[in-house]
Amino acid sequence: MKSYEVNFDGLVGPTHNYGGLSFGNVASQSNSQQSSNPKEAALQGLAKMKALMDMGFVQGVLAPQERPDVGALRSLGFGGTDAQVIEQAAKEAMPLLVASCSASSMWVANAATVSPSADTADGRVHFTAANLNCKYHRSIEHPTTSRVLGAMFADQKHFAHHAALPAVAQFGDEGAANHTRFCRDYGEAGVEFFVFGRSAFDPRYPAPQKYPARQTLEASQAVARLHGLSDGGVVYAQQNPAVIDQGVFHNDVIAVGNGEALFYHEDAFLDTEQMLAELSAKLAKRGGQFKAICVPRAQVSVEDAVRSYLFNSQLLSQADGSMLLIVPQECQNNERVWQYLQTLISSGGLIREVKVFDLKQSMQNGGGPACLRLRVALNETELAAVNPGVIMTAPLYGTLTQWVEKHYRDRMTENDLADPQLLLECRAALDELTQILKLGAVYPFQIN
């Protein structure tokens, strides 16, 4: 039976703005308070989805969240009508209003951790929504994320859904941004690679000093247990605390894997040789041959990696066995990174092609190609059980483009977030979107 790795890209929401909410994310902080363009952001994301579909990859779409999150504001003591809640928050606590308007759910690499059926004890695809409790504006996402994923992957014969881990620091979980899977074939048993920034309970693991380590070892272990993964199919590795302090807030800012290959920076991990040996040995027992592609710091510094998002790329398998790297335009704009990539593809190794995409609107808020997609490995039977409304097609691309053109503003500032009319615009847009994607009622305003 044929299997696929399907990329479900996050559709950028109508309130896309540069609130500078993510401490530790250099791009988010450096572009804080600039004017954003939600319409352009959504169209850029859709263009990437369409391009991958046209290349022959199975591509899906994951809906954004309802924003502003009036329910979250009410839980913090703001009252009255929805309009009054927004007006009161804008007057008394603008940072909370900005947080409640964040469109950060566009980065669906943080939506959940996904384990394919070939790896799990019960033979189903498992999803655990990420609690994202390190940042308030992201911690409010997982209830809607769970409903959306449940509407996309509804057949309980094939799919299992788990609630987010306890929303405490000891179980900080950032989803697939710190999770990679290695395998010979997407339909065969693989090795799931969990990367953590710190341990909540074991002082032997060093922690960063400047920026927070968002993923804990204990959270990764809990997800592995929930998904029914075997010890022989799991490897845990610690991020280098020094690179976290340089802005590497997730592993997918410093490494990316696919198939049997890991493409990573020399300074990405602690105990790198031991980790690579464990990955190689465990993948070999599953019939795979692990391949490590290390980018030396002498050729690309951590600073250049963070600025260009070289590793926040999509590594995709092509029909001839080679791999394609999807990178943001910022890689082409960085002379050292672009020179490295030209050398890489001309060397005749595993990565033989690079394609560049303009994702500036997302990049300025700290998210590149890898942030924008959640990977789900599915066999033919499981793919047929996915809600067909969320699988990208040429007609769906056209419909979503028209939907964005109809509903999205082309400019968003902090003052615009205080406009109660924005909430009405967003709800009208999302109500129409759930019909387009055949999701049913997944948003609070549709349920309450």
Task: Please give a quick description of this structure.
The chain has a single domain, classed as L-arginine/glycine Amidinotransferase, Chain A (5-stranded Propeller). 36% of the residues lie in helices and 17% in strands.
Number of domains: 1
Enter the CATH topology name: L-arginine/glycine Amidinotransferase, Chain A
Taking strands numbered 1, 2, ... along the chain, how are they ordered across the largest sheet? 2-1-15
- The span between the termini is 42 Å
What is the number of beta strands?
Answer: 15
Low-confidence runs of at least 5 consecutive residues: 22-29
Rounded radius of gyration (Å) = 21 Å
C-alpha geometry: globular
At the first level of CATH, what is the class? Alpha Beta
Average of the residue pLDDT scores? 94
Summarize the amount of helix as a percent range: 25-40%
Outline the biggest β-sheet.
Answer: 3 strands, mixed
In CATH, the architecture is 5-stranded Propeller
How would you describe this structure to a colleague?
This protein has one domain: Succinylarginine dihydrolase (L-arginine/glycine Amidinotransferase, Chain A), CATH 3.75.10. The protein is about 35% helix and about 15% strand. The protein contains 19 helices and 15 strands. The protein starts with a strand and ends with a helix. The model is unreliable at about 20-30 (pLDDT under 50).
Q: Which structural traits does this protein have?
A:
448 residues; alpha/beta; L-arginine/glycine Amidinotransferase, Chain A; 3-stranded mixed β-sheet; globular
